Amino acid sequence: MSAVSDPVSVSDVSAADLSVCRCIHLLTASGIVVGMLAIVAVLDESPRAAVLLLVLAQLIDAIDGPLARRFDIRAVIPKYDGYVLDLVIDYVTCVLVPAVFAWQFGVVGDGPAGQFAIAAMLVTSAMWFSRTDMMTDDHWFRGFPGVWNLVVPTLWLLDTPNEAAVGVLLVLSVLSMTDVEFAHPVQAHQWRRPNLVFVTIWVASMTVLTITFPDRSALTDVALLLGPAWTLGSTAMRHVEQRRLVAASR
């Protein structure tokens, strides 16, 4: 969540800075409560509430990182590792809740293929979250970064056929175990502005469509698919660019 820096003595930290950093940790930790509420919404068969709670968790995750870096939280409160805390919460909100959602609301069906897809989601994401090389120096993720909280609601909103949804989950699960690079939506240096724009469009259109569900049109479907299209497109462009650089260096 923040850059590595030398811990400082608590006595050297102002009470105001200490309070701010504690609040940032609490903000991060609140994501697990939102994740629990999303699970409750799924169990209560309230898919719209579950998706909106996942969006809230995503917003918390987008806010706490920049705040942690701004206030150098690792140096102020070295006892707690915000990065590890963030990973624990992300696995719940980005992987576990979407997996339960996909099963409960029939995104993948209830047959062996759906069961296998859910298992692949959970296992490969757990492996990805444990990677020690998950990010490049210019902030691109190595392997699909397990943002199932965006993928699964999108498949649900588009009323994707079970077979196609299973295929998407399996392909992304395989990609999570590779070194194919995906942009961090906020920190990636390359194409930072379009990354932010298209991810914002993705989350915003997903939110609006969830609120208005099941009303859909060709226009809303296109808006929802702009984010995934740019994500896959930027990944492909990055891959081609890297191969070109490798070939030029030989």
Structural summary, described in words:
- With 250 residues, the protein is mainly alpha-helical.
- The chain has a domain at 1-92.
- The protein has nine helices and two strands; from the N terminus they run αααααβααβαα.
- The chain has helices at residues 15-43, 47-70, 73-76, 82-104, 112-129, 148-157, 162-176, 192-212, 218-249, and strands at 140-142, 181-183.
- The protein has a two-stranded antiparallel ribbon with strand order 1-2.
- Helix 1 packs antiparallel against helix 2 (47-70), helix 2 runs antiparallel to helix 4 (82-104) and helix 2 runs antiparallel to helix 8 (192-212).
- The longest helix is centred in the last third of the chain and has 32 residues, at 218-249.
- The radius of gyration is 19 Å and the shape is globular.
- The two termini are 37 Å apart.
- The model is unreliable at 1-11 (pLDDT under 50).
